[in-house]
Amino acid sequence: MRAILNGERLVLGTCYYPEHWPENMWRKDLDRMLASGIEVIRIAEFAWSKIELTEGVFNYDFFDRFLDIVEQTDMKVIFCTPTATPPAWLTKKYPEVLNCDIDGIRYNHGMRRHYNYNSPVYRQLCARIVEKSAAHYAGRRCIIGWQLDNEFNCELDVFYSESDSAAFRVFLEEKYGTLEALNEAWGTVFWNQTYTAWDEICVPRKTPGYVANPHQMLDYFRFVSASARSFAKAQSDIIRRYAKPDDFITTNGMFGNLDNHQMTAESLDFYTYDSYPNFAFCLDVYRDEPESLKDRGWSRNLSEVRSISPAFGIMEQQSGANGSNAGMEAPTPRPGQMTLWTMQSIAHGADFVSYFRWRTSTIGSEIYWHGILDYSGRENRRLRELCDIHKKISCINQIAGSQYEAQTAILTDYDNIWDKQADAWHRRIDDPSRKAFFAAAQRSHTPLDYVFLGHADLEKLRQYKVLIYPHMTIVTKEQADLLTKYVEQGGTLVIGCRSGYKDSSGRCVMEKLPGLLSPLTGTDIPEYSFIAPDAGKVTVSWDGTEFEAEVFADLLAPVGGGEVEGTYTSDYYAGTPALIRKNSGAGKTYYYGSAWNEKSARIFLEKLGAASPFADLAKVPAGCELAVRRKGDKRYLFVLNYESTPAVFTLYKRGTDLYTGKTVTGDITLEGYGTAVIAIE
Ligand code: GAL
Predict the structure, then answer these.
(1) How far is the CA of 101 from the centre of ligand 1 (A)?
(2) Same fold yes or no, 408-607 and 618-680
(3) If pLDDT is split at 50, 70 and 90, which confidence band does 478 have?
(4) What's the CATH code, domain 408-607?
């Protein structure tokens, strides 16, 4: 049986770097970890030189000594491949392994993730170190699984080396077969970009004006993903040959330009996520987030992780202040926040949580990225909180293997995510709408899943009463057919403006909009516009409920069975349809001509009967998150208070507070950052 994520119990771990500490500290560290409830350590992800200090000379003594000590204890180990940090001898001798910036200038040794996935010599050297490590260490009793590399596509998710251009050409030749087909797909007749030989093509480089050709960009993002996936697969295939039968292979993420679903299906037993909610308190992008949704935003990421890997773990869970020499300074988690963020991960489905890191590094670029302990290793508040978390975890073990319960899902797919990266119009509508649905769902206690088309069949879609694809720019025939079946079999589908206007190359379609979605939505779009900056508020009325349109306005007309549900009530399009419903089979589709804000998203959730599915179970204040995990008939209610002040929620049923074992019902008070896990009777 797999040592973690086996449906039996929850397990805590930590990231440990034996190479950073004197050997005489190892045993004491391990004993202290075990005494605090840590049962698993992850090691070696940056330690190439501890095994191959010079080219081709392998010496396993260092980790053998460490693992010997580990095996004197009950500690279990996740061993990593060290390929995120090629050694100095390697990059000096084979500079082609280095990644380059968009101008083709090489990055240098001195940080991490400075390599590219496509250098043939790097592939060979990685295959060798992985094989040597696996062959030597895999039989170790204490090893329970393997992590590939570290955070594929972290730091950089774009690659511009010569090896990348060469591999891009191969990727394109396999995809298109002929240059004619490529020229057609990329619309290269526009601005005289026609290619007449494969070696004229490069990864997208800096251009005088806008970004490069958008169709080339879309293929480039697909290519980066395919490169990372094949890099992962090569390692996974090697490890499988040596790993003990129950040992797992995973990797940690999640980062851009990578189809994590596909990678997981091809190379991993499950996926793990690195959860740092404290970023919400230091990065500019979160500055405007409402206070009560800041760190709670990680629930959105965790929901995406759940879609990649229904059983998942957290390989790095925040335990201290953020910070590197380069910045990112965030406060130390307040008392209770480490527990809150751990329970956030568990509420969303993680049955393994491993903290980053055991002791804060005294050296290198992350001396401010704090772990559980400070530099001295002295007893501290965070260690005491860890011990308390362990107590709580031990009380809720019965939830292991249960599933997060959502009846509503937000749809997405990788092509549209990548199209958005190279398309400002797409971004301007999609970002606010996705945020709006997340905020509205959180505050109305509507658990959401994220479902990636391309990785979900009809049976998967049928699990949800309501599916929302905010802005489905690129639509393929297969996707339109799948969604049509979902609706015909009783589902409710919501689609927002700017949908169906691109094909899978990112070219605009010449059919009337919304293109392939027209029959399903019963909608025609004779005209569209960004909402003019001087237009003031543009309002929509849906059965007498008024709300504001956001960013964009598709001016709609019903066709083929579509019925007008809502109209614009301002600007020159007052009276024009803004929302059309079409019934098909047992279900219905709504096409909304605008993007969403939190208020309109909330109205949609409410009017479609999706909001607050657990209202009969509990009444929870907006500052708290509600989640339910289910195993068979058994339901576990999580309530998480993200605010510093106490909150009261009301339980309408009877349940057992799993932390205390007591029967509870009625009003329950959570302290600031407090959490509750209740088994419902
Ligand atoms: C992760 C990474 C760790 C460490 C941590 C804190 O991205 O995997 O190695 O760098 O962040 O910065």
Answers:
(1) 22
(2) no
(3) very high
(4) 3.40.50.880
Mean model confidence pLDDT for the chain: 97
The pLDDT assigned to 286 comes to 83
Measure 371 CA to ligand 1 centroid, in angstroms.
11
Output the pLDDT for position 18.
98
List, for residues 415-471, the tens digit of each pLDDT value: 999 999 999 999 999 999 999 999 999 999 999 999 999 999 999 999 999 999 999
Q: Is the predicted pLDDT of residue 13 greater than 90, yes or no?
A: yes
Q: Where are the alpha helices (DSSP H) in 287-370?
A: 298-308, 337-347
Provide, rounded to the nearest whole percent, the portion of the chain with pLDDT above 90: 95
Confidence at 189, pLDDT banded by 50, 70, 90: very high
Say what the pLDDT of residue 625 is: 98
Distance 269 CA to ligand 1 centre (A): 22
Ligand 1: residue of 272, 356, 365, 369 to mutate (most ligand atoms within 8 A of CB) is 356
Across the range 665-679, mean pLDDT stands at 98
- What would the pLDDT profile of 389-416 be if each residue is shown by its tens digit? 999 999 999 999 999 999 999 999 999 9
Token pair for residue 144? 């329970």
Structure tokens at 2: 């797999």
With beta carbons less than 8 A apart as the criterion, state whether 86 and 155 touch: no
Taking 90 as the threshold, does the pLDDT of residue 536 lie above it? no
Ligand 1 pocket test target in 16, 42, 43, 274 with most atoms within 8 Å of CB: 274
Contacts of 470 (CB under 8 A, 6+ apart): 410, 429, 430, 433, 434, 437, 495, 496, 595, 596
Single out the residue of 279, 238, 29, 282 nearest to residue 134, CA to CA: 238
Long-range contacts of 260-266 (CB under 8 A, 24+ apart): 260/308, 261/307, 261/308, 261/452, 261/454, 261/455, 262/225, 262/229, 262/455, 263/152, 263/228, 263/229, 263/232, 263/233, 264/308, 264/309, 265/455, 266/229, 266/232, 266/233, 266/236
Return the HEC string of 228-247.
HHHHHHHHHHHHHHHCCCCC
Q: State which of 17, 80, 151 you would mutate to test the pocket of ligand 1, scoring each by most atoms of that ligand within 8 A of its C-beta.
A: 151
* 210 has pLDDT over 90: no
- Which residues are marked as active site? 151, 316
Q: Which two tokens stand for residue 675?
A: 């959490």
pLDDT band for 566, please (50, 70, 90 cuts): very high
Q: Is 105 helix (H, G, I), strand (E, B) or coil?
A: coil
Q: Would you say the CB of residue 274 lies under 6 angstroms from ligand 1? A: yes
CATH number of 11-86+118-155+233-401: 3.20.20.80
Ligand 1: centre distance to CA 109 (Å): 18
Contact yes or no for 608/596 (Cβ under 8 A): no
Ligand 1, atom 10: nearest CA belongs to which residue?
366
Q: Is the CB of 45 under 6 A from ligand 1?
A: no
Q: What confidence tens digit (pLDDT) does each residue in 282-294 have? A: 888 888 887 779 9
- For ligand 1, say whether the CB of 159 is within 6 Å of any of its atoms: no
User: What is the atom index within ligand 1 of the atom nearest the CA of 328?
Assistant: 12
Sorted by where each begins, the domain ranges of the chain are: 11-86+118-155+233-401, 408-607, 618-680
| CATH dotted code for 618-680 | 2.60.40.1180
